[in-house]
Every structure is written in C-alpha cells, then in structure tokens.
C-alpha cells in the first residue's frame, strides 16, 4: 500500500507531498521516478516552454468586427470572430 511522502522540489527547494493517490497513478502509468518538482514549479516549467503565441487581426466575414486569430489570414478564405465561429459551429 502507498503512503504519502514528503519530497523536496529541486527547483525552489520547498517541500511538497507526493500523495498515495499520485503514487498509485504513477505506478499504473509505469512511471519509475518520483516527481522532482512541486506542482507550481511543474506548471511554470510547462507553461514557460510554450512561449507566447503570435496573434493576427482580421475582419470577421460575418459581422465585420475584429477577429484575433493564431494564423496569418489569407485573402481567399473567410475569417470569423469567436462569437460568429461559435454560432456557425452550433448550426
């Protein structure tokens, strides 16, 4: 049976608890190593690797409003704002 363990984060040096449930999950997934970082350091590391996404502005083909999209719009394809895109998806 698993028991909660107190580990030390190698990033910030703070103690964190590796719960029995987490240990069981790790075992089910076949992970052999214990976590080395606390939850907040893992999250920061994960989000830091992604970086900022470049966004482009275009005119919505449906309502004429401003649409911010993560791709460079092309003249031959319509671009929709979030609201109009959601409406089209529902139909």
Could you walk me through the main structural features you see in this protein, from its secondary elements to its overall organization?
There is one protein chain. With 91 residues, this protein is an alpha+beta fold. The chain is built from three helices and four strands; from the N terminus they run E-E-H-H-E-E-H. The chain has a two-stranded antiparallel sheet with strand order 1-2. It has a two-stranded antiparallel ribbon with strand order 3-4. It starts with a strand and ends with a helix. The mean pLDDT is 91.
Characterize the main sheet.
2 strands, antiparallel
Integer average pLDDT: 91
- The total strand number stands at 4
Gyration radius from CA atoms, angstroms: 22 Å
What is the first-to-last residue Cα distance? 51 Å
Structural class by sheet pairing and helices: alpha+beta
Relative strand content:
15-25%
Report the order of strands and helices: EEHHEEH
List unreliable stretches of 5+ residues.
none
Q: Which outline best applies?
A: elongated
Total helix count? Answer: 3
Spatially, the strands of the biggest sheet line up as 1-2
| Helical content (DSSP H or I, runs of 4+) | 25-40%
What's the short version?
With 91 residues, the protein is an alpha+beta fold.
């Amino acid at each position: 049976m698993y028991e909660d363990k107190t580990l030390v984060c190698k990033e910030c040096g703070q103690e964190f608890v590796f719960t029995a449930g987490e240990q069981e999950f790790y075992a089910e997934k076949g992970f052999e190593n214990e976590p080395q970082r606390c939850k907040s350091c893992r999250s920061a590391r994960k989000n830091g690797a992604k970086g900022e996404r470049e966004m482009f502005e275009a005119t919505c083909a449906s309502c004429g409003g401003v649409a911010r999209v993560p791709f460079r719009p092309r003249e031959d394809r319509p671009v929709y704002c979030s609201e109009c895109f959601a409406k089209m998806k529902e139909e």
